[in-house]
Amino acid sequence: MVTAFAEMLKRHATNGQVAWIGLRPARREDLLTPDEAEITLDGLNGDHSKAGKRAITLIQKEHLPVIARLAARECVRPEDLRRNLVVSGINLAALRKAHLQIGEAVLQISGPCPPCSRMEEVLGQGGYNAMRGHGGWYAEVEQPGRLAVGDSVTHLSDN
């Protein structure tokens, strides 16, 4: 029997949208920011990530000004945070363990992506703590495919 609460957890006000794509060719190298990319079972093609529960990293666009404020900065750019995808319009925290359609690809949100100590270097003193709770999410690739900036981020019903 499905409870009203379980049904409520499946509902989202809107679909999200891909706002930015970042590829990290290697550790500490500058990011590439293409308008589209190919997701393979290993992660984004051209990114140094590895297959598994942490193949793709996502962060919400809505969290960037929060991180900036908590780090006492005017703004924080997606490049600063080194996540793969910036999405807007849908609450990623409400999608833990859920399947998402992003472009042609399907991802499963695995868990929270904590900040690394490098955030002190990038954002300044307190940068690590500014990102705590706002570091984004890891995802596993369930179905490879292309995605592009502007593509819809849709929660797939897990009936």
The first-to-last residue Cα distance is: 12 Å
Number of domains: 1
| CATH homologous superfamily descriptor | PK beta-barrel domain-like
Largest sheet: 7 strands, mixed, barrel
| Strand order across the largest sheet | 1-5-4-8-7-6-10
Low-pLDDT parts are none
Defining key terms:
single chain, 159 residues, M1 Pyruvate Kinase, Domain 3
Describe it.
18% of the residues lie in helices and 31% in strands. It has one domain: M1 Pyruvate Kinase, Domain 3. With 159 residues, the chain is of the alpha+beta class. Strand 2 and strand 3 form a beta hairpin. The protein starts with a helix and ends with a strand. The protein is built from 5 helices and 10 strands. The relative contact order is 0.25. The strands form 2 sheets. It has a 7-stranded mixed barrel. A 3-stranded antiparallel sheet has the order 3-2-9, with no helix packed on it. The mean pLDDT is 93.
Helices and strands, with pairings:
Elements (H helix, E strand, L loop, with lengths): L3 H7 L5 E6 L14 E5 L2 E2 L11 E5 L3 H7 L7 H4 L3 E4 L10 E4 L2 E8 L5 H6 L3 H5 L5 E7 L1 E4 L3 E5 L3
Parallel strand pairs: 4-5
Antiparallel strand pairs: 1-5, 1-10, 2-3, 2-9, 4-8, 6-7, 6-10, 7-8
Task: Report a brief summary of the structure.
By secondary structure, this protein is α+β, with helices and mostly antiparallel strands. Helices cover 18% and strands 31% of the residues.
